[in-house]
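Bumping with the actual sequence this time:
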Amino acid sequence: MNEIRIKRVYQAIDELDGYRILTDRLWPRGIAKDKADIDLWAKFIAPTVSLRQWFGHKPENFPLFTERYTEELEKNPEAKKFIELCETQLKKGNVTLLYGAKDETHNHAVVLRAFINRHLSTE
């Protein structure tokens, strides 16, 4: 069964990545666009600048960040199209959500994957 995976954009490209989506609003430092092997840069699905700055990648802010980012996604008119894209790509292989944050547990890609998975079965 194909799945939605999350991975730091700085990690090596893997054949199991499948369709690779950069989910950050800003292009990650030190990554050349021509060598990134990114299928889609979905900056429209990233947290707003104000929410990202408030979060500050502080683990203690993560629960509230999760709530607020989920609310943003629910109101984002592009989110439904994004879920449909993921669903289409999952029929072909895995989908990997790429992010630049150092913390692999407390980042927006974790929230985004949960959001997508919740909506895949109902859309």
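The tokens above came from a reply further down the thread. DSSP finds four helices and four strands in the chain.
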